[in-house]
Design goal:
Layout (H helix, E strand, L loop, with lengths): L7 H27 L11 E2 L2 E2 H10 L2 H8 L5 H26 L7 H27 L1
Antiparallel strand pairs: 1-2
Helix pairs in contact: 1-3, 2-5, 3-4, 3-5, 4-5
């Protein structure tokens, strides 16, 4: 029977939780991208002066680097962040291109892709700052 060090089992449990949360998050992003986009209530035109649609795209991709890093951590923290960033941009680009082919009333918008990338960059910045703070402790 393998020897379990103190705290090791709880790290595995947390990792499993982060993997589940990341999977649910990605399912939600896919649903938002490929649904009709129609809602039964009135959406605001802007949020703090930013078009609401762009704010949604920003907020939709901001958690990606955070959840990916917590769920699928490689041996190198920086490698994990790099893969996370590249994968997030690839998914954002692919989803943006595919939505106009899969849905009837959605179109590809370069401004949406810019908002996605800005959200990814913000999430990445949060992880870098958190990593630097953790390293100093």
């Amino acid at each position: 029977m393998p020897v379990v060090k103190k705290g090791q089992a709880s790290k595995r449990n947390y990792r499993a939780l982060w993997v589940v949360l990341f999977g649910l998050y990605m399912a939600g992003v896919a649903w938002l991208y490929f649904s009709s986009g129609e809602v039964s209530f009135e959406l605001p035109k802007s949020l703090f002066g930013i078009p609401f649609d762009k704010a949604v795209h920003y907020a939709m991709f901001l958690p990606f680097p955070i959840l990916y890093t917590l769920a699928l951590h490689f041996s190198s923290w920086w490698r994990t962040l790099s893969v996370s960033t590249l994968l997030a941009v690839a998914i954002a680009f692919s989803f943006e291109m595919l939505q106009s082919r899969i849905t009837e009333n959605r179109v590809t918008d370069p401004a949406d892709l810019n908002a996605n990338v800005l959200g990814i960059a913000t999430g990445l910045l949060c992880m870098v700052v958190a990593g630097l703070i953790a390293k100093k402790r």
